[in-house]
Structures are given as structure tokens and as C-alpha cells.
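Possible regression after last week's pipeline update?

I re-ran a chain I had predicted before the update to compare outputs. Posting the input and the new output here so someone can diff against the archived version. Not blocking, just want to make sure nothing changed silently.
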Amino acid sequence: MSHLPRHTPRRPWAPLSDLEWHALYPYLARRSPQGRQTGDLRQRMDAIFRIACSADPWHALPPRFGRPDTVSRYFRRLTHAGLWQRLLQDLADLNPGHPLRAIESFIVRACRRAQRILGLGFIVFIRRLGLRSALNGPPWLLPDPDLSESLRRSPLPARPSPDHLRGLKHLLRIAAGRRSIPRCIRLAWP
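New output (post-update):
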């Protein structure tokens, strides 16, 4: 799974068109949310994408989309069900003319929110796919477990010099990523 790193061009939020909805619907239809009625799926996905494309919290969702806590709960269910991983995997492999590409910007922005729930494993998945736009900040500020694994396997000289140890410590710190990324950097990230 070695795709070339790329950025998805930003697109301002707009409700899903019929073609976009029909491209997305099969991913939602696979999932059975424990026998619960989910209301209007298209409206829920529009709500999720609207919030994902903004820096607003869930409670800022306009009333026409329904209750914000219901939409955020549905987002968490989709996240735990692996929807975002399936969508990213397919986006990495789809041809440029596929209708799902039209909402790629919305999907990668939703994935940024999903990182808070899924954590490091999801960051590694996104890095390996090469979809930089789905990362919640610049790659050089995020953890890089592949680098830390490479460093762990690299042989250490019998008598390492202090400079060698300092360099190794610096590389491990880079591999761990920043503890937190300032909001201004996250928001400016494409």
C-alpha cells in the first residue's frame, strides 16, 4: 500500500448532490447500526460534512440538521464501524473521474475529526495511504511510528558518542510527534 503523498484541494461545504449521495450511500448501507432507525441519512451526512468543513463544535450545527448530540453520536458510530477507513482506502485507489472524488474534501475533513476518536492507528493508516490532507496537521508534527520502528531496529555502536545519542534522542522525539498542535496550525493545514 504505497501511494504517492498528495493533498486534496479544499472545497467549501455544500449539500450533497444526487450523484455524490449515490456514490456515498453504498458505504453507509453496508453498516447496520444495531437495528436503530437513523432518520434521513443524507441529512445526517450533510450535517457531519458541514461541521467537518468548519472549525465549529457540534453544538453550532443549525437546527435544520436535527439535534447536534444525535449527529455527533452517529458520527462516532460511523467512526467506530470503520467507515472513514473504508472511504480513504477506496479514495486512494479510485480513478480521478469517480463521483466519490467530488466529496473527497469533505471525507478527509471528517477524517480529521475521526482522528480524535481513533488515535495513532488511524494516523498510521492515513500516512501509509499517502492522503496527507486527511491528517490533522502537518506530517512533520504528527507521530511517525514507522520512523520509530526503523530507529529501534537500527544497530547502535558499541560505544556511542554523546553526539550520536543526542541525534538519536532528537529523531525519537520527531517520531513521537508533538504532544499538541496549535489550533492555528491545524486550521491553516489544507
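Follow-up from reviewer: compared with the archived run. The chain is about 55% helix and 0% strand. Marking as no regression found.
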